[in-house]
Amino acid sequence: MNQPNSSTAETNQEICRPRDFRGELLICSGSGCTANAADEIRNELARLLTEHNLSNTYRIGMTGCHGFCAAGPIMIVQPEGIFYRKLTIKVLDRIVREHLIEGKPVESLLFKDTVGTIPKREDIPFFSRQVLISQRNKGLIDPESIDSYIGRDGYLAFTRTLRNRQPEEVIQSIIDSGLRGRGGGGFPTGLKWRACRDAVVSSGLSPIVVCNADHGMMQLESDPHSVIEGMLIGAFAVGASEGVIYLRNTYHLARKRLEIALAQAAEKGFLGTRIAQSAMSFTIRIHRGAGAFIGGESSSVVASISGSIPEPQARTIRNAVKGVHGRPTVVNNVETWATVPVIMHKGADWFAAIGTGIRKGEPLSGSSGTKVFSLIGDIAYPGQIEIPLGTSLGDVIARFGGGVPKQIPLKAVQIGGPTGGYIPASRLDLKLDFDSLKAAGTILGSGELIVLSEKKCIADSLKNTIEFLADESCGQCTPCREGLNIARSILRRITEGNATADDLDGLRELGLTMRETSMCQFGVTAANPILTALDSFLPELRAHIDQKRCPARVCKSLIRYEINAERCTGCTMCARACPVSVISGERKKPHRIDSTRCIRCGTCFEVCKFDAVEVK
Amino acid sequence: MADKITIRINGNAIKATRGANLLKVLQENGCDIPTLCAHRDLSPGGTCRMCLVELESSGVRSLVTSCNCTVDADVDVFTESEPVIRNRKRLAEMYLGRFPNVPVIRELAARCGVASSRFSSPVTDPNPRACILCGRCVRACKEFVIERILDFAGKGINRHVAMPFNEMDEHCVGCSSCAYVCPTGAIRIVDDLNQPVNPQLIRDHGMKVNAEMATLDKMQNRMREVGTANIVEVMDKYELLPVMNYRFGSHPDTPKIDSKVLKSRYFTQEMADGCWRGCSMACAKAVDNYTLRTGPYKGQKVCVDGPEYETSGGGANMGCFDPDFIVEYNFYCDTYGIDTISFATTMGFVMEAFEAGQITEHHTGGLKLNFGAVDDALEVLHQMARGEGFGVDVGQGIRWLKEKWVREYGADRQFLQDIGMECKGLEVSEYLPKESLAQQAGYGLAIKGPQHDEAWLIFMDMVNNQIPTFEDKAEALYYFPLFRTWFGLMGLCKIIWNDVVPANNKFEKEAAKIPDHVNNYFKYWEGMTGIPLNEESMLLQSARVYNLQRVMSVLLGYGTREYDRMPYRGMGPVTPPEYEWRKDYFDKQLRDILGVDPEGKSTEEKIRILRAHREDQYEKVTDVVYRRRGWTKNGVPKLSRLKELGIDLPEIVAIVRDRQDD
Fold first, then answer.
1. CA torsion sign, B264 to B269 to B271 to B277?
2. Phi-psi region of A269 (alpha: psi -120 to 50; beta: other; left: phi over 0)
3. Which of A199, B147, B450, B452 can bridge B423 by disulfide, Cβ–Cβ 3.0-4.6 Å?
4. ipTM higher than threshold 0.90
5. How far is A427 from B196, CA to CA, in rounded Å?
């Protein structure tokens, strides 16, 4: 067996460079970049290198996702670390000639912001202030190469743990680190492991460690070995010889890379029997989940792996005691597992010092470490970032996300995914950590931050959220099944201008009962968007009811489109674009919209170059 | 288990058992808790959320559903606090909005103080028999009959109960468990093919059985998990397991073949193997993918039906405490059409005779048939099937072997008579009846020979101690053979009568009869025929057949007293090692019952004294039973009894007329 490389490459940006090449062209192969033709770019680049006789000077490599999907497809030219963004096949020729041959980076393809051009990744604000723990290898290693992972100290934490530590010590380290489950619940990971280990002792059953990969696509695509290494440490701690990765079935690329990684890990002797000449045996298999939203709930995961419908289980016994096939089971999510090796490598105290920190002996007293957040919606730089817990919401939006585009004011951020609450722009001081978010009526959840500008309507956004949640409810328990369905009806009425004042009271009562009586966390947290919207955006909701008006001019039933005759130049663009042909007018003369037949699709508004189409 | 803790319900301290179900505790203490998905005989659903209560522990209050909450710490329970009442009302309102005309929903809403709902929606269902998604039927299918034919399909508001792919599933046997637990009448039973007079009566009593199987079996016998093999360890514990041709009643190696081994290493399906589709007890078990070691199918993977208790007990009787052997001889007996009991009991006899030197390798064709000789025993079985060698002799049974060995090999006739466990030519089944007078006579007096179908009294006599006196035993030998003959005549299984018993059976006056279950059988009869039945009329029906059987036995030459006697091995120790095995026990009997001081007496002498006593007891009980049955001292039905039963037909009278000496 190859012993893992024990060099200590500590900085995020360093990477092992093969000596016989002058440099490397690292092309991102994450889902976003691949969808934007990263594979074709790689092929074309290879052709160009051959054409210019550079094949032995530059090597083409691939990396996992950088999380900066707004800039994709991305390529980094090593060793300088020049960061090229939004590549197309057409510009490759210039890069080869100007940069690789003449030594001058192509400035027009580099990252720019208000300050100016920034040629290197580590200098871009989006990256420079991140603290990378679970995503320590993003954009820096080849996700399909175990050597690439080992080259960045991969499997070092595991082999050292296996040789030098006792299972009980490992559990204590995880408890002391203050690591709380990154899947949303925030239960202290170490306590979960200890409960499992205790259950193994009392029941005599062999435990199972499970990675809940219903979420965490990017980590698996970019760095699958980090998850495998975390599971190995967890398996050592609880004494498991069996591991299962519950993988959402739609994660095709993640599955491919995981399968490669598992095979490589087995080949190197990290999986299988007598691991690293010890008595430990451990294997991991992939269990493909059906992909329903509710399937990611931890008792659903356990039910699915046990062969049942992936639905939350009405049980009072925890998975740690009685999980997959009745055996003690540790379920952690992708990000949690990927974090574990770093804690073992750098120590519990190091980890606990990041984030808001915890008080020793009180695992629920704070939020230590970092968390991956996804920025989506009305934001300049959508993507994924890993930052210390406790960072303020305003900081994340402004410094990492680059703010709302086009100077439009921020209205709200929905934090934690579809079951997260709406935090108004007035609360940008809110700290992103488990406890502050709970107090604000939302959750850390999946770490999704959905940014809504003033151009978005809360009623419309809430309606869409509840439509999604009502469809994704498993329907077992009454408050969630009936509550979401009734809430959906009410919200449809609100956005259509047919609601009454009583409907808002009904909505609040439904939300409270869902929160207080639902069987699983899905139903409990599904109340968050409802209740936070009522708390922070009541006037906007009331306008839909009392004045039959949508202040953001989004709700189709409450708006109409008109053409400002003074601004209209009679270019006929709108009339040609209208899908129902209700815009009339002669060329070079003001046009008119027949409001009675207009379907309010907004196409005319989008295509008008003179801002002549107005929403009323 | 009886760990009592104190909890407070709405401020009143009460005692509860640790681990008890909170909903049951609350109901027992008079709390009115509305529920929809909960059902007495089913596991908690936990989905309707109506039964929620507030718990306070260390100053923290939380809402929980009481149906799936166990009482395991000192807590305060509030069943009428503001959050409980508020949420109950809203849940009731949600239900009423969706199912406004379903009676149980209207009742529930009224109970929670809700008169109308603000929450109607596009999916409001006006059907008064609408399915309210409580899931009782889904759990009943799984828990009552171990099927999963009904389950939920769809998610969210589209959730509904369905069979796979929304098609009628041919595995559904129409047991009607789902309809029985349905609170709204959404499930209706369409047809009854046998046209019973009162199908509801049959169903109601069938459901009682289903509910007991779902709730009591796991605590009593685990028939669903391991089948009848569950009693291997019980029999060993009570010294009733036949070990090495009934010499001993237990063995240190029994744990190698007990139900734990079968469950963990052999039984592959926790379901019925098809003895009777839809049976909620599902005691028949199977071993899948078993690789055979011997015989014509050697090396092949087969499915073995069993083993049941008798087959495992037979292993002990041959001294073969090897589970692989038991599964293998089970398979080949089934395949060859040989009864495992007759094979095991005969082999036990052969092995003892071999070890005692009554027969030798010369007679067995070189087979070394010591106790525990698994390979040679299997070879005998294969020979038997092939019609070769020593197997041909063994296949004739114990009665035939005794004759041949005495006649041709000069074996000891008295010894073989004592140890050859057969009666009327049939081998004894796998229970050691030495200490149970009731079972000795149960075997000996059984009309068709000593198997346990007619009088399995050993459990009630030795384990449950339900027939302690001589009179009790004699009465049991009258009642039980008639009751068992009756349900045999009806084609009904006995296992649902006495293996799992009602929780309160021990308080019944005649607990051994399990009166509540006997009543189930009477109701099946009544539901089918429309004619009510009671103990008296049942016994009359049965006695007609039973006495006719005895007359036939007389005709065939086995229906008299001399054929009702058991070999002494079934009644007491034949050889010194058997006596020594339970020396203190037998010595005590001599002292306490016979007033004989065992001190200074040789084992042979003590055996003689004990034997005289036990044989005398057997004769006495035979006298009493014959009299109770209306038979002569020689065991022949009296003409007066035949007349009383209305079966004094000339052909029948002709058979017994000349045997009426009494």
1. negative
2. left
3. B450
4. no
5. 73
